[in-house]
C-alpha cells in the first residue's frame, strides 16, 4: 500500500535576521508616524486653546476697562443718586483708625472730638441730676 506523503520543501526567500530588521524598521516607522500625528493633533489643540485664551484675555481687558470707567467719582455719585443714595466722602472728623487690638489709635482728631463731646455731655447730665 502506498502512503500519501507530502513533500516538505524548505525554501527560504529571506533570512531570519533580514526579516527581523524589516519588522523592526516597519515598527519604528509606524511608531514615528503615530507620534507625529499625535503631536500634530496636540499642536492643533494648543493653538485652539491659545486662541480661546487670547479671546478671554481681550474680554477681561474690556471688562476691566468698563469697571474702571464706572469707578470714577463722577460715575459713582451718579449711580448712587440714581438709586436714591445721597453719600459723600467722610470728613477727617468722621474717620477712626483702629490698631491691631481693635482700640482706636490715639491722637486722632475724630477721637479727641468724640471724647470732648462725651465729657461735655456727662457734665451736663451730672448737673441736671444734681438739681
Q: How would you characterize the overall build of this protein?
A:
With 131 residues, the chain is mostly helical. It contains three helices and no strands. The radius of gyration is 44 Å and the shape is rod-shaped.
Short key terms for the protein model shown above:
66% helix, mainly alpha, 3 helices
Layout of SSEs?
Blueprint: H1 16-70, H2 73-82, H3 109-130
Tell me the major beta sheet: none
Residue windows where pLDDT falls under 50 for at least 5 positions: none
Structural class determined from secondary elements: mainly alpha
Strand residue content:
under 5%
What's the overall average pLDDT, rounded? 86
Helix content: 55-70%
User: Tally of extended strands?
Assistant: 0
Shape: rod-shaped
How far apart the termini lie comes to: 153 Å
Number of helices: 3
Order of helices and strands: HHH
What is the radius of gyration?
A: 44 Å
Summarize the structure.
By secondary structure, this protein is mainly alpha-helical. Helices cover 66% and strands 0% of the residues.
Amino acid at each position: 500500500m502506498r502512503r500519501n506523503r507530502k513533500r516538505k520543501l524548505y525554501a527560504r526567500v529571506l533570512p531570519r535576521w533580514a526579516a527581523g530588521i524589516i519588522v523592526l524598521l516597519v515598527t519604528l516607522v509606524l511608531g514615528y508616524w503615530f507620534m507625529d500625528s499625535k503631536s500634530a493633533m496636540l499642536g492643533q489643540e494648543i493653538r485652539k486653546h491659545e486662541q480661546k485664551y487670547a479671546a478671554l484675555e481681550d474680554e477681561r481687558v474690556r471688562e476691566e476697562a468698563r469697571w474702571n470707567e464706572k469707578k470714577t467719582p463722577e460715575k459713582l455719585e451718579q449711580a448712587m443718586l440714581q438709586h436714591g443714595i445721597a453719600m459723600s466722602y467722610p470728613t477727617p472728623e468722621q474717620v477712626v483708625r483702629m490698631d491691631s487690638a481693635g482700640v482706636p489709635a490715639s491722637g486722632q482728631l475724630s477721637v479727641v472730638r468724640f471724647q470732648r463731646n462725651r465729657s461735655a455731655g456727662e457734665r451736663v447730665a451730672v448737673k441736671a441730676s444734681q438739681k
